[in-house]
Amino acid sequence: MRFLFTPPATVSVPVVGRSERFPVHRIYCVGRNYEEHAKEMGFTGREPPFFFLKPADAVVAVEAGQTGAIAYPGLTQNLHHEIELVVAIGTGGKNIKAVDAHKHIFGYAVGLDMTRRDLQGEMKKQGRPWCIGKAFDHSAPIGPITPAAQAGDVSQAEIHLQVGGKERQHSNVAKLIWNIAETIEHLSAAWELQPGDLIYTGTPEGVAAVVPGDTMVGEVQGLGTLTVKVL
Ligand code: MN
Q1: Ligand 1 centre and the CA of 94: distance in Å?
Q2: Within a domain: residue 150?
Q3: pTM across the whole model
């Protein structure tokens, strides 16, 4: 096959203990999936899960032990961090039941759903899509993927984020409103999941702004740390 121009390289994420990398297909994100974060965004009660996407090339894959870097994006004065547990899909499927969801999971990683909060807020107010607030270049930093068998019980894992050595976000994955299996059930009813899909499962409370020069250190117990500097 011949192309008009060189196709972009496949986006990929390193895998703990393996030389092969995880090729990224799509990035799905769950909105408002921890109660205390939903409250800080002005919502209460359990609503059905909802989803948005980021382009695969929004990924900034950070190698184990390295510090990643993202440029401070344009058009915003309020770039927020959202620390999240990321689920990496190894086996695709549609209409997956929650009880079978574990069979589709390759592994887990620590991710950041970077958000231009001011632009997202403006779009919400106008009833317009969130893309400009959520799906911008370099908006999806992620650390190495730990295969599920080596990850321990992530459903009870502590999740936290420090900026400049000060704690900003701290919670437990057990506090997800829609747990990992339920999220996969809902998501796979709307889209056919494919190997290579990443699911950012939502952020706990404590989201706040970063500025150029800040270094974010995120951690999910059992999955190591993700360090990203804002340039
Ligand atoms: Mn998020």
Answers
A1: 23
A2: yes
A3: 0.98
Number of domains in the chain: 1
Cα–Cα distance list, 51 to 28, 116, 166, 187 (Å): 7, 17, 30, 8
In this structure, what CATH number is given to the domain that contains residue 177? 3.90.850.10
Residue 7 lies in a domain: no
What tens digit of pLDDT does each residue of 140-159 get?
Answer: 999 999 999 999 999 999 99
Count CB-CB contacts under 10 A for residue 49. Answer: 20
Phi-psi region of 127 (alpha: psi -120 to 50; beta: other; left: phi over 0): left
Distance 196 CA to ligand 1 centre (A): 19
Cα separation, 60 vs 178, whole angstroms: 26
User: Over the stretch 53-106, which tens digit does the pLDDT of each residue have?
Assistant: 999 999 999 999 999 999 999 999 999 999 999 999 999 999 999 999 999 999
Distance of CA 125 from the midpoint of ligand 1 (Å): 18
Residue numbers of the domain that contains 49: 12-230
* Domain annotation covers residue 4: no
